[in-house]
Amino acid sequence: MSGSEKRIKVSNIANYYENPRHPIASDEFDTLKKLFDSVGIPQMLNLASDIKAHGLLPCNRIVVVYSEFLKKYVVYEGNRRVAAIKLLLYPDTFTFLDKATIDKVKKIVSGPGVDLSTSLNCYVTDETEAFFIMERLHSGEDHGRGLKSWDAREKENFKVRQGNKQSLSNLIYLYVQKYCDGLDITTILPFTTIQRIFNNRKVRTKIGLDVSNEATFTPDRINLVVEASKWIVAESDNSQMSITRLFNTSDTISDKLCPWIDTYHSTHPAPTYNYNSLDDSLTENSDDSLKEPPFANESHPNSAPPSSPEPSVPKDKDNSPSASNSSDSSKSSSAPSPVHSPSSTSSGGTKNQPYFFQGLDYSKLDPNDSTSHGVSAVCRELQLFSDKKLVSTYPLASAFLTRSIIEQSIKYYSHQHYIQGQGKLIWANIEKLSKLSQIIDNYKKNLANYITDTTIRDYFTALFDNYNDTVNPLNWVVHRPSEFQLDASTLIELPRKGLLAVINYFLTF
Fold first, then answer.
1. Which pLDDT value is given to residue 470?
2. Which residue(s) pair with 65 in the sheet?
């Protein structure tokens, strides 16, 4: 790093007109308005309130570059923070905000917290280094080079280690690892889903788990949780509905799961425990407590518990569970059924990955924007095909929809985003191109100026660098279905190979 620290007056700092968060602005006022519109006024108020309460984080520096043209320092990293500070210092100048919002800001300013300063400690550098810092901080994990956000379990670990109470999901995670040969239960159900389902009062009581007494997290109960998790995934597959939709209310969770638990108990008599005299290792979350011998059944992730009370099933010759194949399911079950395959896996496997385009996010599309009408229609049908698991039934339609969402999302994104460093939309470069292959070629040539997220650029390159391997087969299905068709599994796998992430980026960034 070649820059230097300098304390600069806020009045001598300009927000970056070409901030990737919003369209290119024309002046300082327009920049602030576009930033607030892009980020959201409630979020900016939250940031302003936090700065007033706690001040700026000393480890997260504001990066500026001096502009000879403006005769000011331009913010390259820290635009939201600088804008929030300007809002706190000069609220009446933000005339694009309504009176109620300005009144909230003034109430924040008059409240408790740190004294606001009219100058800020900044890191002054040149544009090259500023761009490097911006990319590192805002391009995601970037194969280990950038910041990696905590997942739900890691957030929970942090809270627990700061002295907060354990959550049920975290205890389940730890004890499944302990008793089930290191199994990561989040390969079966997401961490947050574990909490939502098993913390249901009736379910938790019927299983016999008590967060305040870790002695209740016994091997038989943990094994029940694992098998119940597999059954939940199987029910989701069989009903052709996502888990969050199938188990969407507290009553639905208890009404579906409690009878299954009763059936499980009838075929798996629980041993008697004296919970007051159990080994201390059951009540400690130490590393040593995770080194106990294996206990849990090793069965297919979507299978119900075995009808016999056998504690385990054999593994494959390499001592690892065998993988299951992802396929559409048409069967349904409402109670535990026998496991027939001795080589089935104990992890979630491909069954727990999104089916087709499950997770497609088009919530930010504006229904009043004509450029979003077509892509919205395609998204709705893709959501239906994913929720109802219709790919095997309608593979031709699935291929048509996949081909369409690729083209329509790229065009939508092109209508919404400017070319980096230029004052024109991406659409200006592609509107006269008639073929999707030409549009993708144009993107490939200008990728760094079209897409700011390096991970998404990597996905885009992996997906479309060889057009004949990904998109052209979809074209063949669309134009020559009598000669060429794609099997359902290929179509289902394609979104998992980065396509879903790319589409969501195009529709939400």
1. 83
2. 74
Q: From its phi and psi, is residue 496 left (phi > 0), alpha (psi between -120 and 50) or beta?
A: alpha
Pairing of strands 4-9, 119-124: antiparallel
pLDDT in tens, 354-384: 789 998 988 888 877 788 888 999 999 999 9
CB neighbours of residue 19 within 10 Å: 21
DSSP string of 122-183, one letter each residue = EEE--HHHHHHHHHHHHS-SGGGTS-----HHHHHHHHHHTTPPPPHHHHHHHHHHHHTTT-
State residue 313's pLDDT score.
Answer: 38
The torsion angles phi and psi of 484, rounded to 5 degrees, stand at -145, 130
Q: How many CB atoms lie within 10 A of CB 103?
A: 12
CA-to-CA distance for 500 and 503, rounded, in angstroms? 5
What's the sign of the alpha-carbon dihedral 363, 365, 368, 370?
negative
In this predicted structure, the answer to whether residue 292 has a pLDDT above a threshold of 70 is: no
Please provide the DSSP assignment of 250-290 as one string: HHHHHHHHHHHHHHHHHHSPPPP--TTSS-GGGG---SGGG
- pTM for this prediction: 0.42
Q: What is the 3-state secondary structure (H, E, C) of 167-221?
A: CHHHHHHHHHHHHCCCCCHHHCCCHHHHHHHHCCHHHHHHHCCCCCCHHHCCHHH
Strands, sheet with 4-9, edge to edge from the N-terminal-most edge strand: 4-9, 119-124, 62-67, 72-77, 13-14
